[in-house]
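Hey team,

Filing this mostly as a record. A colleague (T.K.) asked me to run one chain through the structure pipeline before their review meeting, and I want the input and output archived in the tracker in case anyone asks later how it was produced. No errors, nothing strange. Just documentation.

Input sequence:
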Amino acid sequence: MTPTLVQWMAAAIFAIALLHTFGAKQLERLSHRYPGHAGLFHLLGEVEVVFGFWAIVLIATMSLLVGGDEALTYAESRNYTEPLFVFVVMVIAASRPVLRTVMSGVNAIAERAPVRTPLATAWLGLAAVPLLGSLVTEPAAMTIAALMLAPQIFRTSVPEGAKYLAMGVLFVNISIGGTLTSYAAPPVLMVATTWQWDSAFMLANFGWKAALAVLINATVATLVLSCHLGRGPLANDELPEEARVPFAVVAVHLLLLAGVVVFAHHPVIFLGLFLMFMGFTQAYREHQSPLILKEALLVAFFLAGLVVLGGMQAWWLQPLVSRLEPTALFFGALGLTAITDNAALTYLGSLIVGISDEAKYMLVAGAVAGGGLTVIANAPNPAGVALLKRGFADETVSAGGLLLGALGPTLVAGAAMFLL
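Output structure:
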């Protein structure tokens, strides 16, 4: 089928958006050089704004080419459940009661470890929390891990190279750490029902390999970072009295988080639970920290833009995927994941009729292994960028720096998935 003018324009805009993500850091620097236009450069230098901005450009272009009604119909036909879910789960998972509960558990384990507490805490943040993502979903694990690691690793005193390595390890480990179950990782979720992959299948075919790669990546990163790690998070008995949260408040937060996770594919339910959460936080304000609404909204805007832009790329992406043999499909998926969301990639693969079991495995394995290479490679990555970017120069994450930092961990994840 011959591509239409709209499809070519959509592909061109998508390519420009990708280039924009790599140039975001330079735009942020221009905001300091030209203070008269600092606001515009700062806005366009926000990685989370990129895909939302170019999605607006796409819809405006479509309205000029095919009419406003058709452009609006396309925009309304997209499924925005994932952006909404990530927004909700980020806010709840980052709330003080939830975060304190996880950090208390991590600290308790770290204090009993046979190494320095900061080392143990960093290792648990890079290994245990990503694997926890198989239970609480990857976006929740990313939020918790980023907030835990930010004061330890992502500080201005830590060299940029070490921070990009830590970010690369975190992103890769989150991407593969959710594969122990069939519902936590977006790229797995896209194919689980169609291909009848349950959690037992995921654990037997993906989970143990992912866990091994996660442990190796976290261990190497912790050793590299060991000389830069300061004091770990405060233990329970060191926290000020006013910071303590009653058990009942913690229980309500955890129940609401669990409800959101269980109904992750039903926005009517999880948005209702989120409204209950907002009301509860207002009723017990003394036990809350400021909610990360701004950061979560920016991430949701990014993902919604990716949904709009990505929906117009199937005309070239699906034929490319369908023509690859299993081995080539693994490496192709690993590379393509860097320029398109891995969930979108596996979804397109699920539409291929007659795809072999080996090809199914290779497609998903490559997609999850490459999920840390760029900001757009995996849905939780924008959340990590939003929460960690303050620790980098110019408060901006370089796409090139992230790519270099993630290469090593990606090779470990790819080897585990391909060779074992």
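Quick notes for T.K.: The mean pLDDT is 88. The chain has two domains: 5-77, 81-419.
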